[in-house]
Write a structure and sequence with these properties.
Largest interface: A-B, 24 and 25 residues
Structural class of chain A: mainly beta
Largest sheet of chain A: 7 strands, mixed
Structural class of chain B: mainly beta
Strand content of chain A: over 45%
Order of helices and strands of chain A: EEEEEEEEEEE
Radius of gyration of chain B: 14 Å
Strand content of chain B: over 45%
Distance between the termini of chain B: 37 Å
Shape of chain B: globular
Shape of chain A: globular
Helix content of chain B: under 10%
Number of strands of chain A: 11
Oligomer: heterodimer
Number of strands of chain B: 11
Largest sheet of chain B: 6 strands, mixed
Chain lengths: 114, 112
């Protein structure tokens, strides 16, 4: 069964550094998403992406964050100047269609900011 | 009122039991609804979509009540492997652009 893959599985970074989290969505999917989950809290939507542009973003997704689809397979989340509170699990997801269709999640990148 | 609310539980039930969870949502314009399960420190996995007419998949039944703004999940004949956190997801939006909101999840523990 095709799956969403994320790398790295765990990233440890000093506060203030930039990080790039990588995702390879399911190959025939067109809609891509990033979420975060702080330990013990709920999954929070960050951003959705379709046709090489952001479709929606939440209040969390401020100027510190950016997304990119640099080639035909990767989908990245960049966090500039990381803060301690950015420590969380970051999930990438993809769906074949938009319109609120079910999404398939990758197994996440645990980001730890020191 | 929170956008999406779930009883955190835990619901502690014996194998073979029937258990039901509810999830309430505040935005009447919400368009689509899902149940996901999440195992400890793992990614959410789609369990089922929730339709106005209700839907069933084996031991799992999901219902939507738009008038009262809640969705439900019923699990029959619980298995040990059903132990997980069950996440309610509500999407609001129009056209191809939707914003998903997750509930905090309901923890289910199935014991022998």
């Amino acid at each position: 069964e095709p799956e969403v893959t994320q790398t790295p599985s765990h990233q440890v970074t000093q506060m203030g550094q930039e990080v790039i989290l990588r995702c390879v969505p399911i190959s025939n999917h067109l809609y891509f998403y990033w979420y975060r989950q702080i330990l013990g809290q709920k999954v929070e939507f960050l951003v959705s992406f379709y046709n090489n542009e952001i479709s929606e973003k939440s209040e969390i997704f401020d100027d510190q964050f950016s997304v990119e689809r640099p080639d035909g397979s990767n989908f990245t989340l960049k966090i500039r100047s990381t803060k301690l509170e950015d420590s969380a699990m970051y999930f990438c997801a993809s769906s074949a269609q938009g319109g609120g269709q079910p999404q398939h999640f990758g197994d996440g990148t645990r980001l730890s900011i020191l | 009122r929170k956008e999406v609310e779930q009883d955190p539980g835990p619901f502690n039930v014996p194998e073979g039991a029937t258990v039901a969870f509810n999830c309430t949502y505040s935005n009447s314009a919400s368009q689509s609804f899902f149940w996901y399960r999440q195992d400890c420190r793992k990614e959410p996995k789609l369990l089922m979509s929730v339709y106005s007419s209700g839907n069933e998949d084996g031991r799992f039944t999901a219902q939507l009540n738009r008038a009262s703004q809640y969705i439900s999940l019923l699990i029959r004949d619980s298995k040990l492997s059903d132990s997980a956190t069950y996440l309610c997801v509500v999407n609001k939006g129009t056209g191809g652009s939707y914003i998903p909101t997750f509930g905090r999840g309901t923890s289910l523990i199935v014991h022998p």
